[in-house]
Design a protein that fits this description.
Length: 160
């Protein structure tokens, strides 16, 4: 596959997620390096939807450590249970936050962030990392995003 996305940018998000996943699979086919694959996935999601920040935090002991991302500089380490990412890890479930200022313990890595979605990545039943996406728009994410991102993260859990 050529390193270019072919998406209908006039379509709704559900359609774009459906178009994106097979292209991500093709892009990662035959590439064993997890950093390369995570970097391309972060870039592709940001390109597909124009989100403010898209990146991964990877489990390292009792912390999440910043991995590949697209956007402004970010927090490097997050404790389990802290902020939206740490909560997703602790609770082992996706977090959909319409207003980050209303989320108890939100970590403000970027003051422009208004809403956030975080999806855990499971491998063999264990969380190995999370996909973190921030928007500079309040209430920018919905169940459609969670469903599309959970499908991407389920696939990542298979290949990482």
């Amino acid at each position: 596959m050529a390193e270019e996305l072919r998406l209908n940018y006039d379509s709704d998000r559900a359609t774009r997620y459906a178009e994106l996943l097979p292209q991500l699979r093709a892009l990662a086919a035959g590439e064993p390096d997890r950093i390369a694959n995570l970097a391309n996935v972060a870039a592709a999601i940001r390109q597909a939807f124009g989100f403010f920040w898209v990146g991964f935090y990877l489990v390292d002991g009792d912390e999440l450590v910043l991995g590949p991302f697209q956007g402004d500089i970010a927090c490097t380490r997050i404790a389990r249970g802290r902020g939206v990412c740490g909560t997703a890890w602790l609770e082992a479930r996706s977090q959909l936050v319409a207003d980050v200022d209303a989320f108890p313990g939100h970590i403000a890595c970027a003051s422009a962030s208004r809403s956030e979605v975080v999806v855990p990545i499971f491998k063999a039943g264990e969380i190995i990392g999370v996909l973190d996406i921030d928007s500079d728009q309040a209430d920018d994410f919905s169940a459609i995003d969670v469903e599309g991102l959970e499908a991407i993260c389920a696939w990542l859990g298979e290949i990482l």
